Amino acid sequence: MSSNTMKDLKLLLVVPSRLQQTLLSKSLTRFGVEDIAICRTIEEAIVRMREAGPSLVVSSMYFEDGDGLDLVEAMRQDTQLASIDFMLVSAEHRFSVLDPMRQAGVLAVLPKPFAEDDLYRALNSSATLAALKANVPQAENEPAFHASSLRILLVDDSLLARKQMLRVLTRLGVSEALVRQAEDGQEALKVLEEATFDIIFTDYNMPNMDGEALLLQIRQKQDMADIPVFMVTSETNQTKLASVQASGVTALMDKPFDLDYLKYLLSIHYQQPDTKPESLDLTALLPASEGMEMPYSDVDGC
């Protein structure tokens, strides 16, 4: 992503601590972001978003009038704000707290302290999505693919997560009319009996039938066995993930997912539609963060 596109980002910081506001602003400006507004509460942030329409919100977890989940859910339920990207920066580490944020369809969840390459990657994803939404031509070395004819099934018990994935896919060129949705594995199997799909995106943890059980059913059916299945999940249990890979998943993607990895997967599928891809792992494509500066420490608040 060019520095000019990064420069075009309109960013809203929602951070109660003045010191953290300063530290984050410095990190953002180092990457070329110039348009940065700052709010300290959820109420202020909602008003500012309606007035200014930022392309990205970078938020702390806790405020005097609520938390990050309250903010992102308010955004997703407001038609004017629903398409704004959201990034969480927090020292919060409890799965029970962070997983609802991931399910709400956030762009990134960054810990404190974070490596600058992680921040850059999240900013780059937001800048890319903003450029795609505005139909700005991508750089010549960007992976090229034409996704408008892809028939896609989204399977996730979280409506917010499905909406976020749909937003990203449509910005990448996928036709919304060719995307079907299901709330769990059982419903997905019914949809698969009615229609044919080129790609399936599924969550892992779902009621009634989880992602692995759905995957096994798909791989056992001759007419579906070769459909690429991408599992987008916040699951961290390595034993469970290894079992999923052994069951024939095409790719594992973190929730929130990496945009460049998604574009890569779609490129591979489009360019080789008759070839069953080998199982892929997100970690193999992410740059190493060893030796990176950790500029934003947990000085006060989350």
Automatic annotation (TrEMBL):
Query: What InterPro entries does UniProt report for this protein, alphabetically?
Result: Bact_response_regulator, CheY-like_superfamily, Sig_transdc_resp-reg_receiver
Q: Which UniProt keywords apply?
A: Phosphoprotein
Which parts of the sequence carry 4-aspartylphosphate? D203
SUPFAM superfamilies, per the entry: CheY-like
Query: What is one Pfam family matched by this protein?
Result: Response_reg
Which processes are annotated in GO (biological process)?
phosphorelay signal transduction system
Domain spans labelled Response regulatory: 10-127, 151-270
Protein name, UniProt field = Chemotaxis protein CheY
| Organism of provenance | BD1-7 clade bacterium
What lineage does the source organism belong to? Answer: Bacteria, Pseudomonadati, Pseudomonadota, Gammaproteobacteria, Cellvibrionales
